[in-house]
Every structure is written in structure tokens, then in C-alpha cells.
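ugh ok so i messed up the first submission bc i forgot one of the chains. this is the corrected input, ALL of the components this time, i swear. 1621 residues overall. if the numbers dont match what u have on ur side tell me asap before i send this to the collaborators (the ones from the other lab, u know who)
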Amino acid sequence: MNFIPPDFAPASSEIFMLIMVCVVMLADLTAGNNRRHVAYLLTQITLLGCALLTFISFSTEVNHTFHGMYVDDSMSDILKLMVYGTVSAVLIYSHTYVSDRGMLRGEFFSLILFATLGMMVMISASHFLTLYIGLELLSLSLYALVALRRDSQLATEAAMKFFVLGALASGFLLYGMSMVYGATGTLHISQLAQIIQSEASSREVLVVGLVFIVAGISFKLSAAPFHMWAPDVYQGSPTAITLFIGSAPKLAAFGFVMRLLIEGMGEMSADWQGMLVILAVLSMAIGNIAAIAQENIKRMLAYSTISHMGFLLLGFISADSNGYSSALFYVIAYVLMTLGTFAMIMALCRNGFEAENISDFKGLSKRNAWYAFITLLLMLSLAGIPPMIGFYAKFAVLQAVVNAGFVWLAVVAVIFSLIGAFYYLRIIKLMYFDEPETDEPILPNSDVKILLSANGLAVLALGIFPQALMGLSLYAIQNSM
Amino acid sequence: MSFEFPLLSLIIWLPIVFGIAVFATGNDTNAQLARWISLIGSTLGFLVAIPLYSGFDITTSSMQFVENYVWFERFNVNYHLGVDGISMPLILLNCLITPIVVVAGWEVIKQRVSQYMGAFLVMSGIVNGVFSSLDAILFYVFWEASLIPMFLIIGIWGGPNRVYAAIKFFLYTLLGSLLMLIAFIYLYKTSEGSFSIEDYHKLSIPLTPQIFLFIAFLLAFAVKVPMWPVHTWLPDAHVEAPTGGSVVLAAILLKLGGYGFLRFSLPIVPDASLYLADMMIALSLIAVVYIGLIALMQADMKKLIAYSSVAHMGFVTLGFFLMNAYGIEGAMVQMISHGFISGAMFLCVGVLYDRLHSRQIADYGGVVNKMPVFAAFFMLFAMANAGLPGTSGFVGEFMVIMSAVQINFWYAFLAATTLIFGAAYTLWMYKRVVFGAVANSAVEGLQDISKREFILLAILAFFVLWIGIYPFPLVEVMHSTIDHLLIHLSTSKL
Amino acid sequence: MQKLYLLVPLAPLLGSIIAGLFGRYIGRTWSHRVTIALVFVSLMSSIVIFWDVLEGNSYNGSVYTWLVSGDTRFEIGFLIDHLSATMMIVVSLVSLMVHIYTIGYMHDDPGYQRFFSYISLFTFSMMMLVMSNNFLQLFFGWEAVGLVSYLLIGFWYTRPTAIYANLKAFLVNRVGDFGFLLGIALVLMHFGTLDYTLVFEQAPGLIEESIEIIPGISWLVITLICILLFIGAMGKSAQFPLHVWLPDSMEGPTPISALIHAATMVTAGIFMVARMSPLFELSEVALSTILVVGGITTLFMALIAVVQTDIKRVVAYSTLSQLGYMTVALGASAYSAAIFHLMTHAFFKAVLFLGAGSVIIAMHHEQNMQKMGGLKKYMPITYWTMFIAALASAGVPGFSGFFSKDAIIEAVHFADIPGVGFAYFCVLATVFVTALYTFRLIFMTFHGSPRMDDHTREHLHESPWVVTLPLVVLAIPTIAAGWFIGPVVFGEYFKDAIYVLPQHDAITRLGAEFTGIFGMILHAFSTAPFWLSIAGIFTAWYLYNYRTDIPGKVKTSCGPIYTLLDRKYYIDELYSWLFAGGTRSLGTVLWKVGDVKIIDGFFVNGTAKVVSLTAALVRRYQTGYIYHYAFTMIIGIFVILTVWLY
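and heres the new structure output, hopefully the right one now
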């Protein structure tokens, strides 16, 4: 038996990332306690390098490697580029916060990079095992990140919950995969479709597998009723980590759904469509309604995430490239908005003071009109008010839903997003209509300032010119399927 | 007039650019600069709108000053602008009201001046966008965007209960418009990939979907107009809004709903409109009578005028759904006229509020003794509000009543009760506020209106009288368009 | 000539604008000079036009197009014929006199310029009304005079009674206008135009058409139109039951009572019906309605006048009663008699009002007749002019009122449509009552012993010439205007404006017996009205000059009747309870229950409450216990599995 070395080129960025993680760890060990920025810089360089590699090897066709266990296509490249950008922004935003709280240690960067690697693997997986490895790499890194502040009781508790429930969800997923394997006899995602189509497998077994897979996916997306971890983890984690959990992994989760449900189980769309409808409606209902009652901003945003994920799921329901590209657009828009929002919360934190409550936004417009304006844009975008990008995201998804013939679902979605608009408005109300409780100025670093402004304005600018991003999403989907 | 020149874009974006410039002046140390930039911006905004009137071709019903560029091709959405006889007068009205609002807030607004003025300029541009959009998504974007500045204006500069009012305003209107969005998406699907409003006009749709579309549109527009029973946000919003906010709300934003009926409901789903016309007429008549009675009992001047707005807008929807020339043209005149009259009424209340900081009727009395010039203006506008012939308020009501009697005598009968109720609530308020002996020491100390206030009221008075005495030019411009609409309405799309 | 037509309304309008906007700058003297000069221009133009019309010219044309909607053109235009030319003369002459009179009456009033502005504006509005050639402009003038009336009744805006009265006047008029506008709407609907001539041409073609506004009950369209239009006339001309505003309107300055609430504006309704004679003639039901309403107004308002003590109120109720006469004449198809009475009444009632005003000036704005008496020797000019007017009013042969009123009574006598018997009784009985209250006024005011306080008596003197000149000038037509009855009523004078069906034509039947004014006077001595009138004057003399103790006794012995009259049949109370109170309670209920409780409370805030309650519930479900979370996940899987497998 000849050993044919696999083609490493499609996975070049992952390999580069793996090497650099080791470099960062080593550098951190040698650099000493007072030179943390070396690790920081190295991390950013790593992300930049990965981006360059991905960009150079941007594939316009589908390339399989590692015996079909790994795939490189336009969608994966685009998603990965988004992930790099997001992680890089997370690092910039959280730098001050993390160092203020003594979390700026080597393991912070290495864990983030490991998580990033996990996401990259998830995005490019075309085999159940690869997929699972990527997922676990991401999850384990996240559990550790949540627990990074060992002295915080809340964080430890959150990490515990996250870990236990995450393990349960992984179990579901594995169980589902094994059922599918049992029914079809393959772990290759690209082969699944044909086998299912040939009706050589038992439908009952497949459905059982599908249900468990959907449950695993829902956990990752924090869609109801598998959402319970999200509020506790969002609230318990240090804000910088919440920012990370809330942003980049959603991109990976999107890739995950695409690989598993659409590429693998696309033939069973009639079954998962119905499940997704239930999950979507439940998520939108619970997310939007529960968010109203929250006083903690991170918790509120957790529920907001749940509702947004419900909306995202709507995009898949139409089971066509129109819907998938709308969902991709939605998730990108969502990540952009989340980044800005959590960054704003961190900007409100001062040394020793955690901005945790919604009331911390009181009178922001008087303390700093520009930041208030940026927050205004973000909140309106989250609420889906034009001309912010959040509107186009909702619009694209609704369009897909109506196109698939689910007009009633669109109406339900719209009514829940109306309820949702209320709690975003509440933030605007606090910022603009109320008097500030403190007149302490808000002075973030200049890089944060620039990035945050760019982030906020991007929400507006991409709303006024949505074509580029919409076109990109469509391209990513059409070129990969 | 060169058709190459993107006049409509200029009309939309010039105020917005100036608005951003005003925001850029920053905090209140530059307040005077902010005021002047706003005044220049809004005046320029009006001046550039004049060619719209002078270059308008009244003989055609097709869109004019058209601009059409691809906006995002993913969903075939275009930056498609154009005006016809329905939208052109409304744009002019909006461009005229903006400088008035800027000047009205000149000395009164002392805090966050740049934000206040900027918000109005931006809103002016956005509203122009609503009126000139020929693409459904472009329309929707402008439509929703107009909520934001108004929400902030009510919430920041409003009265004590402003938060409740602002949020009620926002959510109420959002509810309506989100369903409209779904209607657009549905039409996009039905028309096989077009968001062009003009394409929708040609679309044939079965009756059941027509009815659903109609209801979706109805919710969006009825909330904006506002029609009974979704009107309750308006009194709250008006009471809490600052004077300028009230003026724009009444004079401009309510017109968005009326415009929507003409641009969407009637031409896109004519059969459903016909099918549900009786219901619409009933709702409109309830607005006229029911709201008229409620207005009578208000103790707060702004609330009274707000309710009177609802009643007057009831005439607009009534006129539309009578579906004949008098009715629709009358309703259009009523919209324009209401823009001037309600704007002027709110300015008048603002004048009093700026002096005594009360809107309660009971806190006034005998104002005429101290403010004779003001009292004269107020009388004119009060009479216009009561629909006195010779003022613009009469023209629309007259035409709608003429129209209603052709459909059913009792429609006209109920509509005409406004002659009594309108006079009763307006003049009763006028009597209690303006007439009588000086009621208290606060009134004793009143100063008559300043030059600035005089100019504002005089401009509005001019238009109120002009439209009242010679409405011909106003109706002339909308004639072809409405004729075309009526022909369109009379052919079934099933 | 057409430019001259424009001058008639526009000159007073210009005067009004000058006095109104620039009165402060040009001062009092120039304000009245300018306005009087411009009204004089209007009068002169009217006279020239009148002459022109007498020569047989007439005009019907448009000034400008107000509006084009659908296929209809709404025009502003003039119709100049005998009817409008006559009205123009009456309006401009009375108006000019009132302008002059005002200089004296309002001499010390701070609102001097404003007053002149208003009355000039009124002249403009009234001219627009009478000169109109279409319903739209008619309605414009109709409401515009209402506006000025509103402004002038409330001229002394610090008086609570005045601002109550003006609001009431406006609203009651609006009730009339409500019907009027609906009438106009029906006209437009059925004729497709609002132009008088075109409408009248088509009117006979409509006679068969009927409409069911209440299912099951069929009405002739023409009847409906006429009754609706007449409701407008009832408001403006203060016919029962819309008469309530006119007595209260006496809160305005006296010149206004003379100009607007006696001579001109209130007769607009009469003018309108006469103008619409080609329509009204086609509906006997409408004519009957008019007869009955007119009859009621005539008699019952006259009865109230008998018990009033306020000098202006007596004249006001007299006006109501006289308007009733005119209305009865309209109902009897004696349009020309109605217009003729309108004209004579304009003069004698103006004199009565201006005379009353003169008395009020002398009495330092005391209006209660019980505090007057014996004024004759202090104010001879006022006395004699008023005495003449009283004779005219009471219908003493030879004076203008006699001719017009006698013509009406006879016309009713000759008419034969349903309701005419009742109307005849009313007009006949009222002759007595009219003479009684008119001379009661004269005797109580000018005769007998002075009852005012000493201070007032010492300062009593005749009014200045600006006040007495109009009295004297107006006294001339008060005597002489009636002498033209031959050509105006019985002749062909109004034939270009008024149309009467042959079977309704009482006037022509009456005209056959007409033998000239002396013949009419001689004939009068053998008729009931004359003797009733004499009886009335005698009774007044007996009760109020000779045995002044009797009225008090009558008052106590006929308590309920007196109170009923004194309280004006409790109609005001009824209205304020039923309409004012009713609408206010209804408004409050709709507001507090409909808007606040049901729409806002239940639906809007209720929804918000349900959402927030649900939110609290969902929140409680998020317990924080890990096993709850795991359990939820498993349940979720279980449910989905169950649904999809079975």
C-alpha cells in the first residue's frame, strides 16, 4: 500500500495557524510577565498571515483533500476571512479590558488561536470526524476561556455549565452522526447525499440521527430549546470572552450547518425544514420576550442572540441558495453588530468597574455624543430598522421565507421582531432621554476608538450600499454547491 | 428643465448633507452656527425644490424627473426616483415646512441645538425620499428611516411623559410598516423579481391575496394617518413633542400614510380596495365623528389639535375610498391644507407654551388683551381649522362632501357633521384661551409675538388663504395623475 | 361695467384690509375716513349698476375659475339682475349709514379701527353673497358673513356673555350650514354644476326623480334639496328652531345689531330662497314646510318680545318675528313680497336699532327699559325717527311696513298649499302683537315719567350728528320705500330673477286687485290687519302709558305664561341640556372609555402587559440549575423525535 501524501495546499492556513499557536506559546513563555504585547502582536500577525494565505489561495472551485475529509471552497475561504477579521477585532477591543483585569497572559492568546483553528476546521470539514474534531477544539478552548478568571465565582460557574451542557450537546451530535452512519455506512459528507437519495437506507434511523444532529447544531447556535446555556454563559464570562463567544463562533456554526444539513442531509430537507421552523419560532419567541425582562445588558444580548439565531434559521428553511445566501448575509451582519455592541459595553467599563447593567447606558449621549451615536446605529441595526445593515439582513431572510411560500412564518417573525424592537429602543431611550448618573469621561484607546467608529459606521454604510456584501454571500453559496 | 440633472436626488440629499454638517458643529457652544447652517440648508432645500413645480408637466400622468440606477442587484432593487401629481405637492409642502420649523426652534431650543436642527434637516431629506421613491425597498428604507429622527425629537426635547409617547409612536408605526414589508416581498415574488412600484401597478393578483395585501398596507398606512382605532399614539406623541416636532408630525409625517394609500393600496390592489371600501369609509367616518366629539372634551390644547388632526385626516381617507375625482382630489387638497393649518395651529400653541410653559386651556384666558396680533393669526388658523370657506381648510372638506353624497347621502351627512364639531371644538378652545378678561397674572405678563414668530405665521397664513381663495393651481398639477388613477381603479386586476 | 361689478365687493374689502392691518399706523380718523369712502364707492357703484339693470341690462359671468375637479368647473362669478341689484343697494346703503353712525357710537372704544375693519369686511362678504352666480360662492359669502357676525358679537371680548353669544351664534349657524352644504352637494350630484342658471334650466327635468335616504321611504330629490337648503336659511335667518342665536347676538355693539342682525345678514336666508325660487317652486312639500316654520317663528317670537325689558332684545325678537313674515311669504310663493318686506324691514329695523343705540348712548349703556321713560324731550330726533319706524313696523297704512306686510298677509290668504291656514292665523295674530310690543317700547322709553337715576338724567342729551344723520337718512325710506310696491311686487320687476309656477301664483291673483298705493291704503281700513294693528297700538298705550299698574298685575296673575315667555319657552335650556350637555357627555364617554380604557388600556397597554408578563414567566423558567437546562434539552429532543417519527 502506497502512501500518497495528501495535498496540503488547501489547508495551508490551518497548518500555518497551528505552527503559530506554538510560536505564540513559546514567545509568551520567554517574553516574561511585563512584555505581553509581544504575544498580542504575534497573535495579530498570525491572523494577518492566515488571512493572506487564505486570500492568495482563494478557491473558486471545490477542492477536497485528506481523502475527502477536508474541503476548500469559496464559502469556506470567505467564512474564514470573516473569522480572522472578527477575531482580530475582538483582540483589539478586548486588549485594554483584559489587561486591566490581569487576564493578559499567554493562555489567553493561545486559547483564542486554538478556538480559531477549531472554527477553521469546522468550516472546512467534509467528514463527520473532522467536523467533530473542529467543534471540540473550539468548544474546549471556549470552556477554558470562560474560566480564565479563576477568581471570579460567576465565571467559574458559567464555565461549568457551559462545559456540562456542551458535553451533552456533543453527545447528541455524536449519537446523531452514528445513527446516520448506521443508516448510510459512510462518514463522508459528500457521499451522504447520494446514499440517502438512493433510498438504500432506513428513513426512521435517518430521522432519529437527524433530530440529534439538529439538536447539536441548535446548541451551537443557541437556538431554543437548546439555548439555556447562553444567558448564563454570556453573563458569567468576562465581557471580552462574551464578545468572542458571541461573534466568531456564529460564523463557524453557519459553516457547520451548511456542511451537515445542506451538503450532507440536503436530501432530507423536507424533514429538517419542519424542525427548523419549530426551533426558529421558539427562539424568536423566547429570545425576544425574555430579553424584555432583563436588567443585565449581557444577559439581554444573550437573549437577543437567541432571537437572532431564530431568524437566521429561517434563512435555511427555504432550502435553496437564495435562502442560504440570505442566512450567510444575516450571520455576517449579526457578527458585525455584536462586535460593536460588546465593544461598546467594554468601552463603558473602567478599571474596577464592570458595565453590566442596562442602566449603565444612561445619559450616554451627554457623556459622549459620538459613542452614543454609534450605539444608536448598532441598536437600530439590531432592531432591523433601515438604513442599517440589520434591516437588509432581516429583509433578505424574510424574502427567502416568503419565496418558499411561508408567508405566515414571515408574519410571525415580523411580530416577534416588533417585540424585540422594544428592548433595543430602551437602550436608545437610556442613552438619549435620560440623565447620566456619572459624568466620568469615556476614554478608550485610539485604536479601539477608530475601530469602533468604523464598526458603527460600517453598519450604516453597508446598509446604504448593501450590494457588495449581498453579492459576496450569494457568490460564496453558489460557488460552493 | 434639463432631465439629465438629478433634481430629486438633490432635493433629498441636500438637506441630509446639511443636517450632517449641523451635527458636526457639535455641542452648544456653536449653537448659533448650527442655527444658521440649518436655516441656510433648509432654505436652499426649499429653493432647489422650486424647479420641481416650475418644470412640472401637468398634462401627463407619468412619472417625471425620473432617476433610475441600480442600487443592489442581488434583489433587483433600484435607486428609482420620480414624481407625479400626487407626490410633487407633498414634496413642496415638506420643503416649505422645514425652514419654518428651523426658525420656530430658533430661540426656543437651547439645549443640544445642533442635534435638534440636524434631526429636522435629515428628516426633511428622508421624507422627500419617501415621496419620490419608485422602488418599494427604497421607499421602505426612507419610510422607516423617518421614524428615527422623530423618535429622538419627541424623546429628547419632549415633555414629561415623552418616553412613553416616543416608544408608543415608534412601536405603533413599526408594527404597521413591518407588515407592509412582507407585502412588498410578496409582490416581489408575484412579479417575479421586481420591486418597482410601477410594475406592481400592472400586476394582476387574485382577490384573496389582494385582500391580504390590502390589510398589510392598511396597517402601515392607517397607523401613520392615523385612522381610528390605531390613532391613540398621536395625541400622546403630539402632547409630548416640542413645537417643531408637532409641526412636522402633523404637517408632514401624517401625510406619509395618506400618500401610501394613493401610491400603493388603491393602484396595486384596486379590487380589494373596492371590496373593502365600505369598511374604510366607515372607519373614516368614525374618525370624523368620534374623534370630533373627543376633541371637544380635551383640556390640553395640543391634545385637542392632535385629535382634530385625526378627524381631519379622516376626511383624507374618506376621500380616497369614495374613489371619484372630487373625493381623491379633495383628499389631496385636504392633506396639503392640513399641512399648513395644523402646522400653524401647533405653532400658535407653541407661541403660548414658550411664554407660559403650559398647554392647559384652563391656564389661559383673555390672551387677546395682551397679544392682539397673535390673537388675529390664531383666529385665522382656528377658522381654517373649522373649515371656513376662503381658507384652505374648506376646499378639501367641501370636495370630499361633494364626493360623498354621490355614493351615499348618509356618508355625506356624517362627514358634514365636521362643520359643527370642527367649529365647536376649535372655537370653544379659542374662546377659553383667547377671549375673555385677563385670567391671571401670568397672562397679564404676556408679550405679543416677535418678528420671528410673525414671519412664520404670516407665511403659513398666506398659504392658507391662497389655497382657500384660489386652489386651482394646486389641483391642476394633480389632475392628470388622479384621472389616470381613476381609470386604473375602474379596471379590475383579477 | 364688469369692472364696476368687481369694485362693489372689493372696495370694502380693501377698506377692511387697510383698517385691519394698518389701522394702528394710520390712526382712528383715517381708518374711518378710508373705510367710509370705500363703502361709499361701493354704494355709488351699486347705484350705477342698479340704474343699468333698470334699463334692462343684466349680467351673468365668471370672474375666475376657483377649481376644476373631475369634469366640473367651480367658478367665482357674478349674477347681476333686479334681485341682486336691489340687494346691493340695500346692503351698501345700510352699511354706509352704519359706518357713519359708528363714528359716534364707538367713539371711545379702544377697538375702533378693528370695528371698522370688521364692518367693511362684512360688506364685502354680503356683496359676494348677493352677487354670486353659483352655489359655491353663495356658500362662501354665507359663511363669511357668519364669521364677521361671530367676530362682531364677540367684539367686546372681555364680556363673558358676549363670547358665549358669539360661539353660540356661530355654532347654530353651522347647524344650518350643515344642511345647506348637503343641499349644495345634492345639487351638484344631480345637476353636475353649481351654476344657478344651468341648475335652474335643468330643474324641471328632475321633478320625477326620487331618492330613498331612509330605506323604504321615498323622497322627491327636489324636495330633499329644497328642505336642506332651507335648513341653511333657517340658520342664517334665525327661523324656529334655529332662532336661538339671534337674541343673544345683541351682545354685540348696536351698529352691528342694526347692520347684521336686522337689516342684511339675517335676510340672507330669505334672499337665498327667493333666488332659488325655480327650485322651491317644484316642491310643494318644501313650500309647506317653509310656511309652517315661518308661521311658528312669526307668532311665537313676537309673543316673547312683549315681555322683554331690554330695549335691544325687544327689537331683536321683533326682527325674528319679521323674518318669520318673510319666510311665510316665501312659503306662499310670494317671493317678491318677501324681498319687498326684506327691503322695507331693513330700513325700519335699522332705524329702530340705531335709535335704540342712540338711547343706549344717552343712557350710558343702560339697556333696561324699566329704567328709562320720558326721553322724548331730551332726544327729539331719536324719538321721531323711531316713532316713524315703529309705525312702519306696526303696519300703519302709508308707511313702508304696511305695504309689504299687507302684501304678505293677502298673499297667504290667496295661497292654497297645505299649512296655509295655520300660517294665515299666525301672520294675522302677529299684527296685533307687533303693534303691541313696538309701541310698548316707544311708550316705555320715551313717554311717561323718567325712571333713571339722577346722575343719568342730568347728562341726558341728544346724540351727535353722526348718530342722528343716519337715523334721519334711513327714516326717509322707512316711510317711502313702500310706495314702490306696485312695480316691485305686482309688476315685472323681479321677473328675471324669480320664478313662480302659475298654480302657486297668489301674487298675480292679488295683483289683479291692486289699484295703486292709495287704493291699497283705503282698502286697508276695511280689513282685519288694520284694526288689529290699531288695537295693538291702543293696548300698548293703555297698558304702558295710561294704566301702568296693569302689566304688573297681569304678570303676577298669569305667572306660568309670563315665565314661559320670559324664559323663551325654555328652548335655550333644552338645547344646552340636550345638545351642549349631550355632546359633551358623549365626548367624555368616548374619550375616557373608548380611547383611554378600551383602545389604549385594553389593546395597546394590555398587549404590552401580556408581553411583559410572559417575559417574567420565561425569565423564571431560566432557573440557573444545570439539570433544568439539560432536562429542557432532552425534552426538546424527545418532542421533536415524537413529532417526526409518528
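quick check: DSSP finds 20 helices and two strands in chain A. that seems consistent at least. Residues 153-184 of chain A form the longest helix (32 residues).
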